[in-house]
Fold each of these.
Amino acid sequence: MSSDCQPSRPGTLSYEQAGVDYDLIDPLKVSAQRAAAATAGHLARHGFAEVQASRGESAYVVDVGPFYIASIVECLGSKALVADEMASLTGRSWYEGIAQDTIAMAVNDLITVGATPLVVQAYWAAGGSDWFGDAARARALVAGWKAACERCGVAWGGGETPALAGIVEAGRIDLAASCTGLINPKQRLSVGDRLAAGDAIVLLDSSGIHANGLSLARKLLPRLPQGWLTEVAPGLGYGEALLAPTLLYSPLTEALWAAGIVPHYCANITGHGWRKLLRHPGAFTYRIDTLPPVPPVLGFIQRHAQQDDREAYSTLNMGAGFAIFVAAGEAARVVAIAQGLGLGARVAGVVEAGPKQLLIEPLGIRFGDDDLQLR
Amino acid sequence: MSSDCQPSRPGTLSYEQAGVDYDLIDPLKVSAQRAAAATAGHLARHGFAEVQASRGESAYVVDVGPFYIASIVECLGSKALVADEMASLTGRSWYEGIAQDTIAMAVNDLITVGATPLVVQAYWAAGGSDWFGDAARARALVAGWKAACERCGVAWGGGETPALAGIVEAGRIDLAASCTGLINPKQRLSVGDRLAAGDAIVLLDSSGIHANGLSLARKLLPRLPQGWLTEVAPGLGYGEALLAPTLLYSPLTEALWAAGIVPHYCANITGHGWRKLLRHPGAFTYRIDTLPPVPPVLGFIQRHAQQDDREAYSTLNMGAGFAIFVAAGEAARVVAIAQGLGLGARVAGVVEAGPKQLLIEPLGIRFGDDDLQLR
C-alpha cells in the first residue's frame, strides 16, 4: 500500500487532476500499513517469520524454512475502460491484452523480490451476469489469461467470477490477480541489501503506457480531434496504442537466475514513473546517462497534457518498464539475455554513493527523496 | 470457479430471481476452468506439481516438496451494500464486521484443504478516492481486518486500495481477500481421499447469513413493513441481523490438528447452501439426523421469500456454516474442541455407502448428484 503526492502546475493535466486524490487515500493507507505490520508476529505461532524488509517492497515475503514464500494481489486499474471504448469503435474485443496487463501487474511486482511466480488466481468482478454473456469478449479474456500464464510459466489456480450489480458498474469489470511464488533457493531474495555503489542500472523497455496513467490518458480525450482514433504514429491510433499489453518480465528474471546472475535490486516502474527508481530505502544517487526510446503514445500524452519532462517522467514510464540493478560487470550480459528473449534493454546508468536522488542527466532532471514516499 | 443451476417455482423468490443468472456465467466458468487446468504443467519447469485433486476444491494446492502451498482469492459479494444502507440509517459504520466477512470468505475456503492460513492480502477497490475520506468507516475497515487476522493467526501482508471511478460505483467498494497458506506437515492435506462410509458429519453453527445469499436478502426489502429495521427477533432488526459477521473457522482447524485430529474432508457452506455437503467428488450418501438451530434472520428470509425448506436449504446455510467429516470415534472430541473455542457444533449425521445424495431426514429433503455441479 503505497502513497504518492505530486504538485501540479497551471496549464498541465496532472495525475491528481485526472481524478485520483491521494490526500484522501493516504491516511487510510498509513493506518492500514501500521495495522498490517502489527500482524507479522502471528507467523511465530506457526514457526515462521516475515522478512521485515519486504514491508514497503512490491511483494510480501515470509520465511518458511527451506525457502521464502512471496504473495501479492494487484488491480488492473482503469485500462479496461479503454478496451470497452475501443470495442465499441472497432467491433472486436481487446480483452486478450487486458488479461495480460492484469497478470503483469501482479507478476512484475512479485519478481522484484526474487520470487519465481508459481500460481495466479483470477479475480474478475463484473457489473452483472450479462458481462459474461458476451462470448467473444469472455473467450478473449480466458485466452489472454492462459497465454500470459504460459509465458510466465505459472499455473492458473482458479479464481472468482462474481456478478456484483450495485457495486461494479453495469457493463464493466473489475479485474485483479493474486500471485504466489517461491524464492528458491533463498539466496535469490532481493529486498535491497545487496545494492551497492558502482552497480549498473539496466532499464528494460516498456511496450507503451502499460497499465499505469490510464486515468490521465482517458482525460485527454476531449483534446483530441479524432478521439481514440487520433494517430499517435502513422497508422497507429491512440486507443490501440494505449492497449499495447504490459510486457511480462518474469521470463527474464528466471533466465538471469539460470545464467547465474542475481540482481542486487529490482524496481517495477509503474504508478510513479521514474521516481520508482528511488524505491530502495537506502541513500544512493542514481545517475542516468542513457534514455530508452519514448514510445509514441507516451510522447503523445506528454504533448497533449502539456507536461514538461519532469512531470512526464514522474508519472509515466517513458519507455522504461522495469529496472534491474546489477553488478557492473554483469550488466552487458543482462542486456544480452533480455534481448535474446525479445525484450529491449540497455545499461542506462550507475548507482553512486551520495544523497538519495535520481539524476536523469540527458534531460537535466533531478528527483530527490521527497519526491517518492512509499513507506 | 464453480457453477450452479437451480429451478425456481412460482410465488417464491429464488436466487436467480435475485439477479444472478448462472446461465450467462457458466460457459465462461467452464472455459476458464479448462484453460486453467491446462496450465498446471508449467509447474514442472520449476520442479513442482499441482495436487490435481485440488482442482474443483475450494483452494488450489501445489506440492513444493517439503510441504504443500494453498492459495485462493475470494470476493465478499454484495454484503457491503447492506452495511452502506445501515450506516445511513444508524449513523455508525458497519465495516468492522464487513472486514471479517471478507477475510472469512478466503480463510474458511483455504482451510478446507488442510491448510494453515499464513498471509492475507487486502483488495479494497473503491468507486473513488472519496470513499477513503470517510475516516470512521476507513478506521472500522482497518480495525476489523486486523482483528480478523489476529483471530486467524495470519499476517496481513499488504494489498491494493485503488480508486476505480467508472468501474466501481461511486460511494461503493469492491472488497476481496487473497490468502496463502501451507499444508504442513503434508499429512494434513485434505482433498477427499480419506472420506469413508461410517464417518461422522459435524456441522459448525453459522452466525447468520454469513456472506452468501445477500442479493436475495436485499431483494426482500420491498416486502418488509419497516425495511432494514423490521424485527427478525425481539430487539433485532433485519439489517443488523444480516450484518452479523461470518464466523472464522481456522482457529478450530488449527486446534484439531494440535489435538491430533485430521478431518477426512471439509466443506465450507456458502453459495449453494446445504448442497455443499455434496461437494466431495465420490459417491456417498450423507444422512443428516440432527439439525442446527436456524438463525432468526434465515428463518425470516425463508418466510418472506416464501421458500419451502428444500429451496431454503439449497440456497442458505440455515445455521450450518462449515462441515467437518471425521472418523466417528473422534466426532465428540471435535464438538468439544469447537465449543471450547466458542463455536457451536453438533454431530449431525453420518456418511454411508450408497448413491450420491444428501438426506436431511428431519425435513424429508433429498438432494441428489444433479443438484450440485461444481466441477
Note: Confidence is low (pLDDT under 50) at residues 1-10 of chain B.
Amino acid sequence: MVFDSETMKGTVDMLATSDHSSVVSITLFVTLLCACIVIGHLLEENRWMNESITALIIGVGTGVVILLISQGKSSHLLVFSEDLFFIYLLPPIIFNAGFQVKKKQFFRNFMTIMMFGAFGTMISFTIISLGAIVFFGKMDVGLAIGDYLAIGAIFAATDSVCTLQVLNQDETPLLYSLVFGEGVVNDATSVVLFNAVQNFDLSHISTAVAFQLIGNFFYLFISSTVLGVVTGLLSAYVIKTLYFGRHSTDREVAIMMLMAYLSYILAELFSLSGILTVFFCGIVMSHYTWHNVTENPRITTKHTFATLSFVAEIFIFLYVGMDALDIEKWRVASNSPKTSVAVSATLLGLVMAGRAAFVFPLSFLSNLTKKAQHEKIGLKQQVTIWWAGLMRGAVSMALAYNQFTKGGHTQERGSAIMITSTITVVLFSTVVFGLMTKPLVRFLMPPHSLLRMISTDSLTPKSFAVPLLGESLDSEADLFLGNGITSESREIIRPNSLRMLLRTPTRTVHYYWRKFDNAFMRPVFGGRGFVPFVPGSPTEQSVHNNWPEEPKQ
Amino acid sequence: MVFDSETMKGTVDMLATSDHSSVVSITLFVTLLCACIVIGHLLEENRWMNESITALIIGVGTGVVILLISQGKSSHLLVFSEDLFFIYLLPPIIFNAGFQVKKKQFFRNFMTIMMFGAFGTMISFTIISLGAIVFFGKMDVGLAIGDYLAIGAIFAATDSVCTLQVLNQDETPLLYSLVFGEGVVNDATSVVLFNAVQNFDLSHISTAVAFQLIGNFFYLFISSTVLGVVTGLLSAYVIKTLYFGRHSTDREVAIMMLMAYLSYILAELFSLSGILTVFFCGIVMSHYTWHNVTENPRITTKHTFATLSFVAEIFIFLYVGMDALDIEKWRVASNSPKTSVAVSATLLGLVMAGRAAFVFPLSFLSNLTKKAQHEKIGLKQQVTIWWAGLMRGAVSMALAYNQFTKGGHTQERGSAIMITSTITVVLFSTVVFGLMTKPLVRFLMPPHSLLRMISTDSLTPKSFAVPLLGESLDSEADLFLGNGITSESREIIRPNSLRMLLRTPTRTVHYYWRKFDNAFMRPVFGGRGFVPFVPGSPTEQSVHNNWPEEPKQ
C-alpha cells in the first residue's frame, strides 16, 4: 500500500499548521481517549454499546463543538491522514490480532477463510462496481469508469477493526475466526484491486489483464506471508540465541516490538500487504518468540500489544468521528442533497447485496466439504457472518480519500459526493449495524450454546494445540497438550496416512506440521517447552518438566 | 517549551518529502534500533562502552553511508526535528526516570538538588555567556548580544538522558539522584533562561528584569510540579474509584500511559516545563496509581515504561549521530575551519569551567548543612558530579537549532558555525567524556564501597520508605517498612517536634508527610496497602495483611 506523495499532505497539514495547534490537538486527542476509555468502562455491561461506537459518538460530538467554536472553519486541524492510519495505527491492531488469535481455529478454517477473503471479495467488488455503473450513471454523479471500479474496491473492504469489537473470540470462536480471517485476507484483496484499478489500462479489459490480476494477488499473498513468517522466525532466533533475559527484560520487549513493526514497514517498503505480513508475524511470534523470553516480558508483551491495539482502535474511531464533520466536502455536496442521500442509500444497498452474494453461496460450498455436522456453517451463522462483515471503517475512508481527494481537499462535485457518501456509509454501518450486532448474535445464538468453548487460560496465547485424536475439542489430549508438554512425551496413534489425508486433510497436515515443528523448527527457534525453565518464574501456570537447556531431541 | 511555528518545518520536511521516502527512513530507523539493541547487548560487559555511544557511532556511520550513497545531498531525509524530540521522545524518558527513581534518595537530597539545578545553572549560564562575549567577540564570529546569551542557556543544559546512561542508580544512588535530579531542574532553568533571552528586551537589563526572571522561574517550577502531581493523583483516583482491574487489564495500562503523557502535553500547552511535570507525575504514579492496579498491569507498566524510555534514548542518539553529518552547515562553516575549531574548543572549555564554578562551591555549602560524615559530598564525589554533568546532548542540539536556524536550515556564517560547534561539543562530550565516565567512577569509587546499597527488590519501585529511626540505611525499620506494611501497624517514637525539625529537617518533614499520607491521601488515592488484596496474584512479593476493601482507618 504505497500511495503517491500527494497523500502525505494530510499529515503535513495536520502537523504543520503550527507547533501550538499541534500541541492543542494532541492534548485534545489524549483527553478524549481517556474519556472514551472511562465511558467505555462504565458502559461495559450495556448490551448495545461497544467502545468503537462510544468513540465514534464522542468524536462526532467533539467535531460539532470544534465547528461551533471555530465558527465552521476548523476542518484543517483534523484532516484525515491516511499515513497516520496506515503507518502508525493499523499495524498494532493487526499484529495484536495475529498475536492473540486462536491459531487452532484459524488454521482449521483456513480454506474457508481464503475462499471468503479472496473470491468473496472479488464477487463483492464486481457487484458493487456494476451496481455503481448502473445506478450512478442514471443519477448523473459525473464520475469516470475508473472511479466506479475504485468504488467497488473501496466498499469491498470489510472493516476488520470493527469486527474485532463486535464479535467475541471466546464466545463465538468459529465466527470470529471466519469473519476476522476473512477481513485480513479481504484487505489484501481490496488493496490489490484498488491498485489494479489505478494502474491498469482499463479501456482494454482482457483475459490477460484478468490473469495478471490473479497472478498479482497470489504473488502478494504469498510474499507477504513469507515476509511475516521470516521476520517472526528471525526475532525468535535472535532472542533465543542471545538470550537477552539474562541481562535485560527491556531489551527483549524492545526487540519484539521493533521487529513486529519492522515486518509491517518492510512490507510497505516492498509494496506488499503490510496487514497480511504483520498478521502472520504475530502468529509466528506467539508460537516461538513469546516462549523464548522470560516471565515478565511475556506478561508485558501480551498486555502491551493488547493495550496499544486497544488505544489505536479507539483513536481511529475518534478520528473518523471527528473527520466526519469536515465542512468543506459537505458544503460542496450539499448543493445536491437529494443525489447525496440517494448515493449513500444505493451504496449501503450494494454493500449488503454484494456481501449476501458471496456469503451464502460460498458457505454452501464450504459445507459440502465438511462431513461432521458441527463443523458446518448453519444458516444462523451465515446470517451473522453476513451481518458482521457489513461494517465499513477506516480502511474504506482511507481508500476513498486516496481516490477522490488531493491531499484531503476536494472541490469537484462528484468527488465531494463520494467522500460524504463514504462518511455516511461508514458512520451508518458502524453505528446502526454495530449497535445491532451484539443483540443479533445473542438472538441467533443464545449464550448457553456459546459457552462451551470459553477459554479458561487467560494468560498463555493458545499454541497449536489441535487435538490429534478423536473429534471432541475438549478431549483430554487437548488439555494435556495445552499444558506445555510436547507431543513427544506421549504415545501417539499415527494417522493412516493417505486415507486420513483424504478424510480429514487439515488434521493430517497438522499432524505432519507438528512433527516437523518439533523435529526441526523448535530446536532452532525455540517455543513452548524448548527454552530452559527459569526457576521461580511465578506466573508460569503450566506444568514444567525442567527441560535441559536447548534440547536437541 | 512552546516554540514558534518555524520550528515545525523540520518535522514537515522529514515527513513530507514523499510517502515512500518516509517509509524508507522509518525502515532504516527501526532496523538500526534493532541493531543498536543487539550490539549494545553484546557489548554489555565492556567497561568503556554504553548504549548511547554505540547508538551515536552507528548513527554517524549510517550518516556517512547515506552521504556516500546520495553523493552528499541527503541531509533533508533526516533533518533534526525539535518537535519529534520534545513531543515524542523526551516524555517517556523523563516519565520513566520519575517512575523508577528512588524517591527516598531524591527527597533526602531535595535542597542540594534544587541548589545545583537552579543556582548552579544560573552560575554556569553567566560564565558561559560572559566567556562567549569575551572570546567570540575577539574571533569575529559575527553574533549579536542575544545570541551570546542564548549560547549560555544552550550550553548550561546538562543532558539528563546521557547521565542516566553513565551513572547507575543501584551502584551510586547518591550521585545518581544528585546528578539526575539536577539535570531535571537544570532543564527547566535553561528553558526559562532561553525563553527569557528570546523574549526580554536585552538592551535594558535592570534589576526589575532580573526579578522578573527569578519570579518567572519560581512560577514555572511550582506550577509545573503542581500540574504533574495533580495529574498523577487524578489517575490514581480514577483507577481506584472505577477499579478497572475487575474488567480489563488493558484499560488500566492504557489509562496510566495516556494520563502520563497528558501531564506532559498539558504542561507544553500551558508553556510550563513538561519535563518537570512529567517527572513529578511519574513519582506520584509510582506512589499511588501503580499500587491501585492489579498484578499484571503492574508488571506491564513497569517494563513498558522502561522499554519505551530505552528505545527513545537509543533513537535520540542514533538521530543525533546521523544529523551530525548534515552537510549544509558543514559546507558553510568549512569556509573558516580555524574559527570553527576555536569556537568548539572554547565552548568545551567554558562548559567545563562553568560547571566547576558551581559544583565545588555549592557542594561546600551543602556540606556545611550536613552533620553526619556519610551524608557529606566528598571531593571524589564532587569530581564525579562535575564530570558526569559535562555531557551535552539532544536538549542542547534542539535549543541550538531553535536559535540559529530557520526550520533546520541556515546560510549565515555565524549561525552555521554555532550549529557545527554545537554538534562537535555534543559528539565530543558524549563520546569522549561518556567513554571515560564508567572507568572514572570505578577509579574514584571502587566497587566494594558501592555495593552497600544495591537494591534486591527488582520488581517494586521503591516507595517512600525513609527510615524513621536511627541513622543506618539498612536498619530493620527500613526493611520492615519496605515490605508493604504501613507504619500504623508498628509503634513509632514521635520525633521531638521542634528540636527534631531543626536538627534533621528532611526527616521530620518526612514523618509528618507520612502521617498526612496515611491519614488523608492514601484512603482517597490508594497506594501500597490501601487497595484490596487480589488473591493469587503471583508476583506480589510483599507480605499482605488482607486489607478490607477500601479501609477508612
Note: The CA atoms of residues 36 and 54 of chain A lie 7 Å apart.
